[in-house]
Amino acid sequence: MPRKTLIVFAKTPRAGLVKSRLARDIGRHAATRWYRGNLSATLGRLGRGRRWDCRIFGTPHHAAHWPWPHPWRFRHQAPGDLGHRMLRALRSSSGGPVVLIGSDIPGIGPAHIAEAFRKLGSNDAVFGPSADGGYWLVGFSPRYRSDPFRQVRWSTEHALADTLRGFGPGHRIGFVAELRDVDTGADLAAPGT
Fold first, then answer.
1. Single pTM value for the model
2. How far apart are CA 181 and CA 135, in angstroms?
3. 131 secondary structure, DSSP code
4. Which residues pair with 74 in a beta bridge?
5. 3-class secondary-structure state, position 90
6. How far apart are CA 42 and CA 109, in angstroms?
């Protein structure tokens, strides 16, 4: 039976490479420290238990040299816009369901990922919406082979709605809990972050 695959999109956690909007609010070093701590905690929580194959798709080119923890295996992100990079990553698995998340969601836990995989048992795709109109999680079942990311206004309040329109009629879409990602100082200060 094909394995489940969890992918985390990440950047090398070095100052000047991560969380530029957050850095404008709290400073570059504080933003890097937050990102590094959150990424480490996320990989630790989600990498335990061998419930799914753990993959990091990273950027920039030197991300391959970062000491990523076991059991996470590293690959470079494809070139192109966010939609193209996500589609290539989601299509990279060995035929089982795939879930992809970002690396700036402090509230995420294994139960969220397990629920997303459960939803993929009866849906073509699954999303974890975020309060800003985007999404923190996307997953595809092996049955879904199209591209919903072609006409998405990324980093806007329209990102989830645009992506859902890209599926067209006849596809079943599931949803998991709404979580907050951290892009700005206000996000970091929000309750529950």
1. 0.95
2. 9
3. T
4. 56
5. helix
6. 8
